[in-house]
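Example 9 (inverse folding). The structure is encoded as follows.
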């Protein structure tokens, strides 16, 4: 019985080897086919952020830290550049000359713990509302910004 089992095993092994050797082997990929092509690099549109830290009421100690954090996060991530201001001159859509930026340049406006009534005339207030509502750009108010009129 043992010789029968051994010959059966050898026969099956031989049939398996023939079956495997009869398979067509896939040709080795050419060097250029081995690595998929690089995906098209997604072009990042650098966002422009304006941070206002003006206060006319209580001045929080955290304003400079908030402004620095926003600046550093943008620089480290490479997703946005930041302009830091403690005045409201750029909160307009008017041409300021002198290569100065206005709201048309920015994608996001951040009030960093601003307080009380800022130095904005009626046209600046209208331009700021237009920036958000009509242009669909962003606004973020940090902490005490809710206290700003």
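The amino acid assigned to each position is listed next.
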């Amino acid at each position: 019985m043992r010789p029968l089992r051994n010959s059966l095993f050898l026969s099956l092994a031989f049939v398996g080897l023939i079956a495997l050797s009869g398979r067509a082997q896939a040709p080795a990929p050419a060097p250029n086919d081995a690595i998929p092509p690089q995906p098209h690099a997604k072009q990042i549109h650098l966002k422009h952020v304006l941070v206002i830290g003006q206060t006319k009421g209580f001045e929080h100690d955290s304003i400079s830290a908030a402004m620095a954090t926003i600046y550093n996060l943008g620089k480290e991530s490479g997703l946005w550049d930041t302009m830091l201001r403690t005045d409201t001159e750029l909160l307009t859509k008017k041409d300021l000359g002198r290569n100065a930026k206005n709201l048309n340049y920015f994608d996001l406006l951040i009030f960093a713990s601003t307080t009380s009534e800022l130095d904005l005339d009626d046209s600046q207030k209208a331009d700021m509302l237009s920036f958000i509502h009509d242009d669909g750009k962003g606004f973020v108010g940090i902490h005490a910004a809710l206290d700003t009129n």
